[in-house]
Design goal:
This protein is an alpha+beta fold. The chain contains 12 helices and 10 strands. It has an 8-stranded mixed β-sheet with strand order 3-9-8-7-4-5-6-10, sandwiched between helices. Strands 1-2 form a two-stranded antiparallel ribbon. Helix 1 packs across helix 3 and helix 8 packs antiparallel against helix 9. The longest helix has 43 residues. The termini are far apart.
Length: 332
Amino acid sequence: MKRGLCSIDEELAVRVYERLLVAKGVTLPELATDLGITAERAEQALAALRCLKLVRYCQEQGRFVARSPEIAQLELLMPLEQTIREKRRELTDFQDTLGSFADTYSSLQRTRLRREPVLSGLDREQTGLRMADALRDRPSEILVMEPFAPVQGQDSHVLGLSALPPGVPIQVLYPHTARSSLASRGSLRTLAEASARVRTSTQAFERLVIVGGEVAFLADPGGDDAGVTVVYEQAIVARLVRSYEHAWASGTDIDSNVVRYGETLDEVRCAILELLASGLKDEVVARRIGMSSRTFRRHLATIMDELNAESRFQAGAAAVQAGLLPVRGAAG
């Protein structure tokens, strides 16, 4: 059986069609009688031939009349050919539209910034472009470390992260001194509103942004006007991520509505003593702790007063006796 003849065998359909051609038209009873078949089978055969446009019913004569295969073919194929033409036009339209997107994609890929393993000395404009490029693919997370108390509207601007991208998990680590700065309250609230997690630690001493665990931005020493180093080398970025996670684990969550050291004050003073015991100069210690030289001197004076020490050496020895420093720290 061929497609279009439904459940009627081809031999019967051909016999019916031949009878219609010879008789120039017959009724259903006549057809059944002439072929020696039931009226039901004759009706089924006629229905199949009508689907193929090989038979038509002449209302005036009340008879079924055969049609030429050429006419039937035209009537059947023209709609199919029209559908094929429309689908081809639709296919061409899709190809043209997708081609435009493909051109845009290729152009964008060509303009992606070249990623050398390490780039040093980038200015703010170059850093901003690199940061925008890193944020383009919606990173899984952003890790930020700032060694100084935040100031409203200036967070990480030197590293090109002047605005926090919405919907991306962000962790920000500040030194404990951020807790005592009234000027930091607005910035901390902004971070909290952006759903950033904020902690303070004695180990926040670098300006660092790590985007998606794939690229790191480090401010070069020398202040805000210094250049920025961008690292794409995955082994180095992974090491920086581990260092950040270690500092983060040692930190304490901060409440932007509370501006005080709280339980972190002892950590700050112990860090000052430990850094002094290692032989670092005052200005270096102040920078590592994240405070001004004036604030550092005030803390140092308070520490020496509490330890009843007249010199830093005495302060170190008293700190060891008080259990604030390990023996090796005082001896160093």
